[in-house]
Structures are given as C-alpha cells and as structure tokens.
Amino acid sequence: MFRIGIDIGGTNIAAGIVDESYKIVKKKTIKTRNVSTPSEMIQAIAGLVKDLMKSAMVKADMVTAIGVGVPGTLDPESGKVLYANNLGFEDVPFLTELKKALGEELADKVYFDNDANAAAIGEYITGDYNAKNFVMMTIGTGIGGGVIINGRVLRGCNYAAAEFGHMTINFDGVDCNCGRKGCFEDYASVEGLMNLAWEASRSSSGKKSLLGKVSKREELDGEIFFDAVRKGDKVAKKVLDEYLFYLSEGIINIINIFQPDVLTLSGGITKAADLYLDKLKDLVSKGIYSRNSSKNTEIMLSKGISDSGDIGIIGAALIYKM
Amino acid sequence: MFRIGIDIGGTNIAAGIVDESYKIVKKKTIKTRNVSTPSEMIQAIAGLVKDLMKSAMVKADMVTAIGVGVPGTLDPESGKVLYANNLGFEDVPFLTELKKALGEELADKVYFDNDANAAAIGEYITGDYNAKNFVMMTIGTGIGGGVIINGRVLRGCNYAAAEFGHMTINFDGVDCNCGRKGCFEDYASVEGLMNLAWEASRSSSGKKSLLGKVSKREELDGEIFFDAVRKGDKVAKKVLDEYLFYLSEGIINIINIFQPDVLTLSGGITKAADLYLDKLKDLVSKGIYSRNSSKNTEIMLSKGISDSGDIGIIGAALIYKM
C-alpha cells in the first residue's frame, strides 16, 4: 500500500507517493505562483496526485491515504483553510473541493493539516521515537514546531498550535513581524543568529575577526559563521554564547510548559550542533523549573527524515495516522 | 458510587468523599506539619481516607477511585514522587506505599497527579466545557495551570507540565525565585500586580492617590487595589493597564502554543474581572499570531468549582477519569 503526501510551500507544491518504509517512490513539483486562485490550486493538486498515480502505476485501491500540509490555520469541522497568508487564502473550502476534484474513489482518503504539524508527524513516525510526549522545534529562518501527546498531534482549535517562534521572551525587545516585540524567533532563529553576528562584526574587534571579512549582511550565512567558530574566532564564539542563551530561554519555556519526554531540534541550525549541543543542554538543565527532579526532558537532534527536503511530503502522507 | 480526593498542600492535607454530582459529602483535614516524614504522611493519608469512609459509612465497594493531588514532580511508571519542594520529598515511592497502607480492597483504585493537573481536571469536568483543547490558567500568588487535550490531561514526563508561571517573558527582567529572570508570574500574578501598585503608590502622584493611603507593602491587597480602580483612581487605573499588558503577553504566548478552544482564567485575580476582562480579551485578540483566522481561542472565567477551596479535593477525586 501507498500514501500520497502533498506539501504546499510558498514557492513549490511538491507531491510524492510514499511507500510502507516511508520512502518516496515518485515525486512531482509545480510552482506555487503558477496557480493564482484557491480553486486553481486545488485542481492542480488533484492533477498532481493523478499524474503521480498514473506514472507510478498506483491504483486508487492501493492508496491508504492522501494528506496535504498547508501553511495556515485550518478548521477540522468545515474542512476549510481559514487563513494562509503566503497563499492568500481566506476561508477556502479546501477539503471539500479537493475531495470533489479527486473523485469518489479517493475522496474518503483525503486529510489535511498544518504543514508544521505534518512535519512533526513525519519526524515522530520515521524517527521511531519512544516518547509519549514529544516536541519538535525547527530552527531555520524562523522557528516552528510540532507537538505529539499520547500518540496524537497537538492541533489546537485551528490546527495552528505549536507556534513556538511567536512566544515573546522579551516583551520590550526587538520588533517582530507578528506585531509584538521580542519573539523567540527574533533572537533564536538562524536569522536571529546572523543578525547578532553581523552586529558583532561591525564593532572594532569584530572588524578584525573572521566575521569582519564579510562586507554585506546578505553575505553572512551559517556556514561562514560556524566556520569562524570552528577556527576559534573569539568574536564568533562570543556571539554563539549570546545566541545559546536566547535559544535556551525559549527551550526552557517550552519544557516548563510541556515537560516532553523528548524535545528534538531540527532545521538549519542543527548542522553545526557539534559546536554547541552540549553547552545548550547544560544551560537548559540548569534553568528548567523541574531541575531537581530525577526525570526530565531529553534534548536531541532530529533523527528522522526531517533534514531531507522531503519531510513535508512524507509528513503529509502520514497525517492520517495521528 | 463515590470517589475520594486528597489534596496535599503546604499547610493542610485535605480529604473528601465526592459524590456523583461532584459534591463533597464528607471532609477532613490535618496539618501538613504534623507529619514529618514521607512514610508518616502516607500513613496519615491512609488514616484520613479510612476515617472518612467510616464516618460517611462508605464501604470499599462503593468507592470508584481514590486520587491524590501532590505539589511536585511524579513518575507514573514507578509511582514515585520525584521531587516536592514544599514537602521535602525526593524519590518517595508514594503510590506503592499508599496502596499498601490502604489495603487490598482499595489498592487498585488509587491514583495520583500533580495538584495543578488535578485542579484542571476538576474544573474541566465540573465546568462541563465543550472543548477538545482546554487550558486553565490560575492566577493567584503565583501562576499555575493545567491543559486538557483530546480528553486527557497534559502531564508530561514527570506530571509537572503546564508550569505557565515560569515562562520567561522578559529574559533580562526581574529576578525570579526559579533562578531565571522575568518569568510570567513575576509580572502577572496577584503578587506581581501588588508589586506594581506598591511601586506606583510611592511616586509623588501615587502618594496623593487612594493607593498612597497604604503605608506598608503588606497592607496592600487586591481588595484595596481594585477598590481604588473602581473609584476611578488614576494611578490605580494606570497600574492596571500596565498589568494587563503583562498578563496579555503571557496569555498570547500560551494561545500561540496551544491554540486551545477555551482558555479559562481562575484564581484570586478573577474576582475583579468585571474591571478588566473585556480589555484583556481585546489585547489578546490583537496580539495572537492567528488573529486573521476566523476561528480562535475563547477566553472566559472558570465556571466550575475552582473558586471554591474544594477544587483540590474534587479534582483529585476525578484524576482517574483523565
């Protein structure tokens, strides 16, 4: 049997047929900008699914489930996408229309979820975690997440739970694009780290450091930064320490709130984890409210398929499971 | 049939027999300080339960469940109280010993949970909320909480989840007793509000205000403060506005994280809710990340039994349900 996962991103809509061992056996992608209305997108998704099935010679009765990861808030009862900023969707009867477009044979097998929830489902299942309470925190350009409790994903009333990035950790801090100040992702995303590094690189000691060689903010990236840390650059190391404080503050908040068995880190920042994971764990273990308890959250790097670009597809294909 | 609930507090251990309509039919209390070791406390609890059953003429086969709310971290697998600061407990085999002390007829009916979880269970069941995702935030001297998702309480790996009070909202803010800085409860508990009010009362305009009539910090309480607000005292109203900002920041964080159907407020602060609830709701609705979505969290005052002092007992008696 197969499942089909569809990941709707701002740039691409990617769909794949996923086998029993969570491998993608066939994949297709279209540009998101090529479909301008919700109805066009729904038709395009149905077309993608049918194309995929045809080219992989998968018949409807070989499909267990079709899942779509949507970047927005959803309503489980009406099957609507309530709001998806990147797609320009507002109150779109997504599920009903997609079922119609896919036809009777597939209609009963269609599921949707928020894309971050789908990713957490994918990580949880493919990573084979032995955890009743599981939190995934994804640290990339922004910070997102997903939570699984007692074998079910925490969706909340509009499927948009686990918006960790928009938890303020500094109510009079920097302006956030969400309208508030001092959100976790402003400090602890890769973007937040690069902002710190850029600022440090402009100071008098920073100019003489490895970071100082970069002359434009856009040129600075994780590779350059962590390379400087690896080479023992003092300015870069100081920046990393400051960053780890911010990151630990958000992680401690989330642990105090969920007390998960496992909190797994994924996303771009984890590529250089050998440089900071032990220190991060130490900061967290000293700060959590339950630190005197002999049982606490284990922090680890994601071990499932989440570092591949295919997490969105595989996770979406597995939505029906949770 | 009856359930028995036991609430272990820092001052009293209170136990009650609870009937099918969640009323306490018989209640007994002992002083916590009269039992100095964990074993003594467990024996005393078993004694309380037997006393209660005897005086209410409730036989073992009339008891559905016995639940204990413990102020600490617990381990569901070993039945241990891992750590309870107020009780001086560390790795106490609580459940095993209590079962033994209660005897064979009752042993299978014994449950325990963190006291805040028990309170949330009590509120959720007696308040008859129609909510798959439910958050209770209790604002008193500190800030605590409980979360119910898909009909089960969020316990976390050590039963100490939902520690909302120790979510930093200002990482370089005031020192918190938990060792971090700027925790939600430092700003948004009743204590936090009183600190703000006291500070304002010492300013030159504050001295002329109704708050200025109080000459000692200990004399200032919620009644005096909200009475001043009710009388239109400008200084008090300004303090309330500042406080509501802090309170809303924490609530917005929790909504962004859980997206509950319902977030209910309980605790001392709710007594004066007529003075601020609408304003608070307005602040929250403007700040939440999903504010453009047509489906969002409903904020309300607790409507169950949580304002009575018996919430701890009733909630504990209902632990077995969730």
TrEMBL record, chains A, B:
Tagged with keyword Chloroplast: no
Keywords: Kinase, Transferase
Entry superkingdom: Bacteria
InterPro entries: ATPase_NBD, ROK, ROK_cs
Gene Ontology MF annotations: kinase activity
Keyword Aminoacyl-tRNA synthetase: no
Signal sequence, start to end: none
PROSITE patterns: ROK
SUPFAM superfamilies, alphabetized: Actin-like ATPase domain (SSF53067)
Entry's family note: Belongs to the ROK (NagC/XylR) family.
PANTHER family the UniProt entry points to: BIFUNCTIONAL UDP-N-ACETYLGLUCOSAMINE 2-EPIMERASE_N-ACETYLMANNOSAMINE KINASE (PTHR18964:SF149), ROK (REPRESSOR, ORF, KINASE) FAMILY (PTHR18964)
Protein name listed in UniProt: Carbohydrate kinase ROK family
